[in-house]
UniProtKB/TrEMBL annotation:
It holds the Pfam family Cytochrom_C. It comes from Brevundimonas basaltis. GO terms for molecular function: electron transfer activity; heme binding; metal ion binding. PANTHER family: CYTOCHROME C. This is Cytochrome c. Residues 22-124 form the Cytochrome c domain. Keywords: Electron transport, Heme, Iron, Metal-binding, Transport.
């Protein structure tokens, strides 16, 4: 049997590579950074940070059942609400936006922040 025939047979009988799993949403991927401290289960505040389920549109420090810093509670009392803009600024530099907040800086690029904020908005 000619060599090229053996090679052709090998190519034709090699099973196709399994379909790779769909790439996770970039926002979901970026949330892995947050998941160490934040649950996405509603009212699951038994973590270092409050649950982020439904956080878009929520008053800062507004989830009942989580022991926020005085600084974040005061920001909420002054009318701070989490939207794309406030969240972007807080994630970029928490202490600059809410001096005295307990959340440490998370790092990450502007693109990752935008992706995680969009993803959080979709988690209703
Ligand atoms: C090391 C732990 C930790 C990580 C990681 C972390 N956070 Fe936090 N986060 C906290 C803590 C603690 C608070 C409460 C801060 C306070 O009370 O001042 C908080 C508060 C928040 C709040 C305010 C919630 C509210 O109800 O007012 C948002 C929004 C938030 N985090 C988003 C994020 C996002 C998005 C990420 C990932 C990019 C992230 N956090 C990563 C610890 C963390």
């Amino acid at each position: 049997m000619p060599l090229y025939w053996l090679l052709l047979t090998a190519v034709l009988t090699t099973p196709p590579a399994p379909q790779s799993a769909p790439a996770p949403d970039p926002g979901e991927r970026a949330f892995q950074r947050c998941a160490a401290c934040h649950s996405m289960r509603a009212n699951d505040h038994d973590n270092p940070g409050p649950s982020l389920r439904g956080v878009l549109g929520r008053r800062a420090g507004g989830a009942s059942g989580f022991a926020y810093s005085d600084a974040l509670k005061a920001a909420g009392r002054r009318g701070m609400v989490w939207d794309e803009r406030t969240l972007e600024r807080y994630l970029a530099d928490p202490v600059a936006v809410v001096p005295g907040t307990d959340m440490p800086y998370q790092g990450g690029s502007a693109a990752e922040r935008a992706a995680v904020i969009a993803w959080l908005r979709r988690q209703r």
